[in-house]
Specification:
CATH topology of the largest domain: Rossmann fold
CATH class of the largest domain: Alpha Beta
Number of strands: 20
Length: 394
């Protein structure tokens, strides 16, 4: 998704410097070109060899290592789309605020006119020091994006605010800055999430293991890309967009049918129960020592029913969770349901799918063209699904 983007990463002398190795890996995995500039003190925590191996580029440290008759700090500015300083120590933040250019990293910052993202990392007392507070406010007022540190156990042995923000948060922030085009602006997208539950009695139900994470990630990313999102979810979440909470397949069907009428697209990421109890009990069924027989009836096939009524300008995306013959079953499903795309994932793999924070998917269209999304976190997978499908439909 970041193909063709040039990212300059700055690393300062902070204990969390090792975490930036994972950030570099994430950018490279998304096809970005990564250059790294470090302060001399940063090399007390990470090595040039490691950074060069991960970035697949030389690492710059020296202030006056001039190449092609061009000062190095200017060359680095011209050759990148964004400057990400993570971790940023209190010392470097102070220098950045006051225009001190005593090393290559601070010289680059002083000359940089493109977006800058700064992720501080330091001891709690240093973070709360009035000078640091003022410096952060000043940088923010100049348009610098500050990703504030998190609270937790610090390297100095204390608890408090100062930990480097989660690498995925830094990655997502950079992604949003570099990919600002709102390809879904003004378009209503209805998204379902979670596993439906069918009551047996007042305390029991038939359900599945779906957590709703994939659907919620899709809704979050669609919203960031400008969509008018309606999330129909079995999981209760508070969002900036509209959320309709449901429990049963019938409730989900009615909500989808209502919301899809004026929608541009529907994404059926929910795991919908195929059957429900024919005669559910309005009180708890007591144990009798014998066999309990439950009579099941089919639930509405929401995906298929919506495909029947959709117009030519509407796009429907289904999901297919299979434990075997993944691609063949997905092709059969897109044929039988009539949707525009199927996102298929293999639930036999324990490290992806239901309840996991990760997923690996295959996007299949009506002509059976296949796009593979390699294993990644569900937020990243959601962004790729939206970019690959709606990016070509905008």
């Amino acid at each position: 998704m970041l193909s063709g983007k040039n990212i300059l990463i700055g690393i300062t002398g902070a204990i969390a410097a090792y975490k930036t190795l994972e950030l570099i890996r994430l950018f490279k995995k998304n096809n970005a070109n990564v250059k790294v500039v470090v302060t001399p003190n940063a090399l007390n925590f990470v090595t040039k060899t490691t950074l060069e191996a991960l970035s697949q580029n030389s690492v710059d440290v020296e202030q006056f290592n001039i190449r092609e008759y061009k000062p190095e700090h200017i060359s680095l500015c011209d050759g990148s789309d964004i400057f990400v300083i993570a971790p940023a120590s209190a010392n470097t933040i102070a220098k950045m605020t006051h225009g001190i250019c005593d090393n290559l990293l601070t010289s680059v910052f002083c000359a940089y006119k493109k977006p800058v993202v700064v992720a501080p990392c330091m001891n709690t007392n240093m973070w709360e020091n009035p000078s640091t507070v003022k410096n952060i406010e000043t940088l923010k007022s100049r348009g610098i994006k500050i990703i504030e540190p998190e609270s937790g156990f610090l390297a100095c042995g204390t608890e408090g605010k100062g930990r480097l923000a989660d690498i995925n948060i830094i990655f997502d922030t950079v992604k949003e800055i570099l990919l600002p085009a709102q390809i879904l602006k003004g378009k209503k997208i209805v998204i379902t999430a979670g596993g439906t539950k069918e009551d047996i009695d007042t305390v029991r139900y038939i359900g599945n293991y779906s957590s709703g994470k994939m659907g919620i990630a899709l809704a979050d990313n669609a919203y960031k890309l400008g969509a008018d999102v309606v999330l129909i979810s079995t999981a209760e979440v508070k969002k900036q967009y509209k959320v309709i909470n449901v429990q049963t397949a019938e409730e989900m069907y009615q909500a989808v049918k209502t919301e899809f009428k004026d929608a541009y697209s529907l994404i059926m990421a929910a795991a919908v129960s195929d059957y429900r109890i024919k005669n559910k009990s309005d009180k708890k069924i007591k144990k009798t020592g014998g066999t309990l027989h439950l009579k099941l009836v089919e639930n509405p096939d929401i995906l298929k029913e919506m495909c029947k009524i959709k117009n030519n300008n509407q796009v429907i995306i289904g999901f297919c969770a299979e434990s075997e013959n993944l691609i063949n079953n997905a092709k059969e499903k897109i044929k039988n349901k009539g949707c525009d795309y199927i996102c298929a994932n293999d639930i036999s793999k324990k490290d992806i799918g239901f309840s996991s924070n990760f997923n690996e998917l295959y996007i299949i269209d009506k002509e059976y063209n296949i796009i593979h999304i390699e294993k990644t976190d569900k937020n990243n997978a959601a962004f790729q699904i939206i970019e690959k499908i709606y990016g070509k439909s905008k």
